[in-house]
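Protein of interest.
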Amino acid sequence: MLPKGPVNDNQKPVCSARNGPVPVSSKQYRDDNALGSTSSRKAAWIFEIRVRMKMRLRKNVVKILILGVLLWTGSAAAETRILFLGDSITAGLGVEKEQAYPHLVGKALRLKGYEDVTIINAGISGSTTASALSRLQWHTRMRPDILVLALGANDGLRGLSTREMKTNLDATIQYALDQGIKVILAGMELPPNYGAEFARAFRAVFKDLAQKHPIGFMPFLLKDVGGVARLNQPDGIHPNPDGHEIIARNILTHILENL
């Protein structure tokens, strides 16, 4: 009996336009299946490569970010920040900013090889110990390592309570220590016309705090400068450039002990 449609060499019916789809040869089926399998494997291979490339890119980005953080942290760790919290003497009233003793200290440290030192001059003319704590709290965002606390002169010159002055300085020192900041307390002396009793009580504030806390202590900020006309401005209170040079030299010793 003749087949109903065209046949191939193996006498198996193939597709006929008139009769509709009919089974194809096993060889043709295998070839078609092989093509499909090859195409699927190729697509899967391309997809896998893309996934791996994305993963590798992400890993590289993470490595770069980690390296950046480590470099920044290392740089921050190597840098030493010294905060000078004081009044008009620290601010450099009457002299250029570069002539004030905090700037001169920074310059001297760099000459000694301390390249990674940042000086923060937080001197404000007319300030008293009443603002010491709040000012320090504000400056802690700069993460100082050493605090040079040079306040109290205006408290004494204005005849303010030595008890309150002591309380203010005590709270400021304790806060700094709690933050891991090393402290150098710079004391002050009053002119003789303020009376012996008040001058003794004023001087005792600095001495008592230096004994109470584990801090550095410079008894008199204006050592070798106070009362020496040629080292001060016409007001007899604020040092001139030569006076600031001496202050910087004297306080540098205490700062070196804390580096």
Notes: Residues 26-78 form the longest helix (53 residues).
